[in-house]
Amino acid sequence: MKITEDNVVEQIMNRNEKTIPFIIHQYGGLLTAIIKRYVHNNQ
């Protein structure tokens, strides 16, 4: 099954390992920004 934004949660719940690269590709920039802000505020 192809992973899409509509079924990504279902794929995570099914423990589909191919979901991780999808999430990184789709949301990598957002995750990076959130992590940098969190780390910066905790220093």
Structural description of this entry:
- This protein is an all-alpha fold and 43 residues long.
- It has one domain.
- It is built from two helices and no strands.
- The longest helix has 23 residues.
- The radius of gyration is 13 Å and the shape is elongated.
- The model has no long low-confidence stretch (mean pLDDT 93).
How many domains make up the coordinates?
Answer: 1
- Spans of 5+ residues with little confidence (pLDDT < 50)? none
Note the beta-strand portion.
under 5%
Could you tell me the mean pLDDT?
93
List keywords for this structure.
about 45 residues, mainly alpha, 2 helices, about 0% strand
List the helices and strands and how they pair.
Elements (H helix, E strand, L loop, with lengths): L7 H6 L5 H23 L2
